[in-house]
From TrEMBL:
Pfam families: MbnB_TglH_ChrH (PF05114). InterPro entries: MbnB/TglH/ChrH (IPR007801). This is DUF692 domain-containing protein.
Length: 354
């Protein structure tokens, strides 16, 4: 910041909805970047694919509309998935089955987002999947989802790194699965490793945003920029909890400078091919819902958040309404089921039981 190397900032605006007062310097910082059209918004808590239209989602849109009047966002994005848990702000964002029902729900929510913020809207690719088949379908589903709003994609390269490790895929194989013509933003970050108890000998890569950017992710960035003709932003992410000592702060600074130099080397002067603004949207008065999907989401959340062992988790899943359904739990990787439970229990603000 002091050296004026930061050319834009991404703000997780909904993380502050419950904060009554923020420091004056923070508002001034947002205003400076907003006035230069270099402020972008990144949501966390909308729960795009909740089967029931929830009061908290309407309030989220109301708040987005208000904050979009105060600050000018160049675009707004959200995470893919639904939030586990009955407490809307204490859940984990997890995957959904790729069906016509979830497609229509997601499209409905994206239209409402775009209407609230009046700027381009997009979604981030997943770091977590239950199975290899889900990984293979994710890019096509994203493309179908975004098409009606002319939406764009955040290509999170650490998320790709997680998928590559967890499902034994190459960058090139993953790269071919995504609609790269829709990429307007790239994320890079670090994460952590977790030894699986369900699959002895396997480690799972987690997108925890609490460590330096791996060398492989910088290699991904070097390659990915060339495949994304509408790319406008590259963002380095890290949680404040991961910057708690001099060495971690120094590593973050080093990662930023390395990213900056790579972008300058790769930078092109041609205008992006797509402005990602939609035609006039028709938004139904009634939000799209599916009560069966919502009940399954509640059931899955309850199972993940309360399981006391991996065996108990598997028995509960097999006895649930998700068995032999569009969720295809029979093909889920045991290590990823275990990881989903740990994520859900962590977001519920308690230590994982197993």
């Amino acid at each position: 910041m002091e050296e004026a190397r930061v050319e834009a900032i991404e703000w997780s605006f909904d993380a502050l909805y419950a904060v009554e007062e923020v420091p004056a310097w923070f508002g001034e910082l947002l205003s400076v970047f907003s006035n230069e059209n270099r402020l972008i918004g990144h949501g966390v808590f909308f729960s795009l694919f909740s089967g029931r239209w929830l009061p908290e989602q309407q309030q989220w849109l109301n708040d987005l509309k208000a904050v979009s009047r105060r600050y000018q966002f160049d675009h707004v994005t959200e995470h893919f998935g639904f939030m586990t848990g009955r407490d809307f702000h204490h859940g984990a964002p997890l995957n959904i089955p790729y069906t016509p029902v979830t497609l229509e729900i997601g499209r409905d929510r994206l239209k409402r987002m775009q209407d609230a913020c009046s700027c381009p809207v997009g979604l981030e690719n997943l770091a977590f999947s239950y199975s290899l088949e889900e990984v293979k379908k994710h890019g096509d589903f994203l493309n179908e989802l975004l098409e009606p709003v002319n939406g764009f994609m955040i290509l999170d390269l650490h998320n790709l790194y997680c998928q590559a490790h967890n499902f034994n895929l190459t960058f090139e194989a993953l790269n071919s699965l995504y609609p790269l013509h829709r990429v307007r933003e790239i994320h890079i970050s670090g994460g952590s490793w977790e030894v699986s108890g369900a699959t002895p000998g396997k480690t799972v890569r987690r997108d925890t945003h609490d460590d330096a950017v791996p060398e492989e992710v910088f290699a991904y960035l070097d390659k990915a920029i060339d495949f994304c003709p509408s790319l406008k932003y590259v963002v380095l992410e890290q949680l404040g909890s991961g910057l708690d000592c001099d060495s971690s702060r120094a590593a973050f600074g080093h990662d930023f400078l390395r990213m900056d130099e790579l972008i300058k080397y790769k930078n092109k002067t041609a205008a992006p091919l797509n402005n990602f603004l939609p035609e006039a949207l028709q938004i139904p008065a009634q939000a799209r819902e599916d009560e069966s999907l919502y009940q399954q989401q509640l059931e899955l959340s309850q199972i993940l958040e309360t399981a006391t062992s991996f065996d108990a988790l598997m028995k509960a899943l097999q006895a649930s309404s998700l068995a032999h359904s569009a969720w295809q739990i029979e093909s889920w990787d045991p290590a990823m089921i275990e990881t989903a439970a740990k994520i859900a229990q962590k977001w519920r603000r308690k230590d994982p039981i197993f």
